[in-house]
Amino acid sequence: MSHSHDSDMDYKVVFAAVQTVCEDNINIFCDTSDTPFGHVAQRLVKSMIEIQEHGQALEPIVASFTAVFHHYDFDAQTPGNGYRTLVKVLLSCLMHIASKGRYIASNYNGAFFRADHNASEIESYCSALCQLRALLHLAQRLLNNNDVGTLYSTQEDGELSERFVQEYSSMHKACFYGRCLGFQFSPALRPFLQTIVISVVTYGDTYGKQQSGLGLAALSLLTSGKYVLDPELRGAVFERITQNLDLQFWKSFWNLTESGLITGFNRIASYPVQVNVTLTLPPVPLRLPLASDPSLSVTVQPPIAHWGPGPVHLRLISYELREGQGSEELLSFSREDPPPISAGQLPWVQKQPRSPWLLIHFHGGGFVSQTSKSHENYLRTWSKELGVPILSVDYTLSPEAPFPRALEECFYAYCWALNNCHLLGSTAERVCLAGDSAGGNLCITVSMKALSNGIRVPDGMMVAYPATLLTTDASPSRLLTLIDPLLPLGVLAKCLNAYAGGALQTMQPTVGSSSLSVLLSDLTQGASNWIQSFLDPMRATDGNRSLSPPQSNNETHRAPARTSSQTMSPSCHYPEGFEPRRSNSLAFVHPTACPIFRNPFVSPGLAPSNMLKGLPPIHIVAPALDALLDDSVMFAKKLRAMGQPVSLTVVEDLPHGFLSLLQFSKETVFASTICAEKIREVFEREIPGLRKRPSTKPSG
Q1: How far apart are CA 554 and CA 423, in angstroms?
Q2: Are 66 and 4 in contact (CB under 8 A)?
Q3: Type and span of the H or E element at 360
Q4: Out of 459, 626, 630, 653, which one is annotated catalytic?
Q5: Which conformational region is residue 425 in: left (phi greater than 0), alpha (psi within -120 to 50 degrees), or beta?
Q6: Partners of 621 in the beta sheet?
Q7: Helix (H) or strand (E) segment spanning residue 637
Q8: Which among 231, 274, 395, 631 could bridge 178 via Cys, Cβ 3.0 to 4.6 Å?
Q9: Is residue 169 within 8 Å of residue 161, measured between CB atoms?
Q10: 230-243 pLDDT, tens per residue?
């Protein structure tokens, strides 16, 4: 396949460039008498030698991945899976090293050369390279133990070796949150990531002190200076916070960003809309026609899980005012006081006819945070680009409302919208569901619920980086939770346990998320996920060594024995003489083996085919650098194997949660446009046997 030859060339060029740059720098600085900075020269030489060693060990591993990773793609046109991503992240790190090394070699004699700063940069990337090497060794174990084409191994056995968890919870991660922060993402996103990480560590300083939100924000600004100036300190504090602070810290941090600067910026940066109202649905039973025989109907009860019937909150967004949207009947559901202006009071606004389309949206946020308001920036844009009214559901969040409350509320809102589309400015000839992360999970499970209740299913759905597997199963892309500032492993575990109803226990790894909590959302998948599934397949490793692909000699040696604080499963040995760097603070990850994670309405990726058969077309949009990428690839493969209509689009250089980063880069704008185009495909798709309508194009 041509694409594997291209990458073959790429990686060899990158490794050769790094070796050359290191050699040049070693030759310049090994004789420190020639330089005015002897101590710094020693640091540079030491790092360059270490980088060369890592490079020599890594090149054969990359070669082995490059030879096979096309077998794990969804199809030949859609190159994307966790093995490709790990190689891409590694090469990105090496290219940063090569470029920094060239700069040092050319400028060390200059008057403005900052010797100490440049040595610190190289040391930081050297640390990152060491940790990435450990991740590639782990991925190699997965590759040897999984079937070809399978990205994760789902193990029924929920037993997890405590020693194995210790091994991962003890790995050093601070280097990925300091000077190297976000090196793997589009450069335009790096300043934003830096802002988020600084905000988290600053907020961590003041968290728990009794202050009003504004006083807290002011205090945070005063203390953030030290974190701007000292990236090492910032990385160390961020690592500590992600490993040791509770779910309430993260929820309050995200609430602060939502009520404050980010939301204000979103409103300025996105289109003004004529309709933006919040609605509250009273908990009354609904009657809906059966899809198979509309003369019969079925009753849908209001949400009742955990505390009995309660209202459901929604937001209606429409770029243009349409028939029904200003009606007294709709405004009777408004929870705003005074109620929003009705159309009768704006005689100069031309009311548009109802759209044949309706978009129903479920937001991300790891099931534990965010609201429709934090996702308004891209919803306003879509409403304008597609000319469609959008109904976004503000479902109740975990841990206060664990599964199945959010699903019940989203399903109820969907049913209400079908019955009341005339109030929403739509005739609902075509209904599409859209959601990101946790919201993507809810799109799929709401459709499954519609199917099992025998009512109309949506005409299609667009899910961005959806959480489809909330179990403790390992995959190569999930290894990224060790380095991703937006989706640290601790966060995963916290969100996962919260949604499953286990978060009220205090002993849990802590959340770490430095970016839109959307990111958190998918992480729901689980810290535990990958660790667990890693473990079981590897137990068999030693007995089945002969079945594995041959490895170079240095790969098969055991790591030297460790102290008791660093015991680990014998199947997870690193090559002799190599050991990843260790963190000062352990992350206590308590994975969950509770059966609820395998419920098909929690993990649709595990649903039996009879529950997925009959779902409408699903369009999945996943970023290449998403820890949940493999979930999207495997779910798409599963649907395709069943003959279900599915498409997968992989976008480069972006993290999980890119929709919430819409205003930060041209890449995020491009990815959001792809999502909108997939929604348009659902609306414009011709359904065989239906009379072609004169026009399905909404006005505007």
Answers
A1: 68
A2: yes
A3: strand 355-362
A4: 626
A5: left
A6: 464, 649
A7: helix 629-641
A8: 231
A9: no
A10: 999 999 989 988 88
Residue 653, judged by CB atoms within 10 A of its CB (0-12, 13-18, 19+), counts as buried
Backbone angles phi, psi at 280, to 5 degrees: -125, 120
pTM (two decimals): 0.85
Residue 580: the pLDDT is: 92
Catalytic residue among 169, 656, 665, 672: 656
Q: Does 512 score more than 50 pLDDT?
A: no
Catalytic residue among 224, 426, 437, 513: 437
Model pLDDT for residues 458-471, shown as the tens digit of each residue = 999 999 999 999 87
The sign one gets for the Cα dihedral 105, 106, 109, 112 is negative
Residue spans per domain, the chain: 2-147, 270-466+607-684
Residue 361 pairs in a beta bridge with 392, 434
Question: How many CB atoms lie under 10 A from the CB of residue 77?
Answer: 8
Report the sign of the C-alpha dihedral through residues 500, 501, 507, 508, in that order: positive
User: How far is Cα 16 from Cα 462, in angstroms, rounded to an integer?
Assistant: 42
pLDDT-derived band of residue 433, with 50, 70 and 90 as boundaries?
very high
Residues linked to residue 433 through DSSP beta bridges, in sequence order: 360, 461
State the CB neighbour count (10 A cutoff) for residue 34.
11
Residue pointed to by tokens 């300025």:
268
Known catalytic residue: 656? yes
- Classify the phi-psi angles of 689: left when phi > 0, otherwise alpha if psi is within -120 to 50, otherwise beta: left
Secondary structure, 3-state, 59-108: HHHHHHHHHHHHHHCCECCECCCHHHHHHHHHHHHHHHHHHHHHHHHHHC
What angle, rounded to 10 degrees, do the helices at 38-68 and 115-145 form?
Answer: 20
Highest mean pLDDT among 516-520, 522-526, 560-564, 665-669: 665-669
* Architecture field, domain 270-466+607-684: 3-Layer(aba) Sandwich (3.40)
Beta strand 297-300 pairing with 286-289: antiparallel
Angstrom distance (rounded) from CA 364 to CA 418 = 23
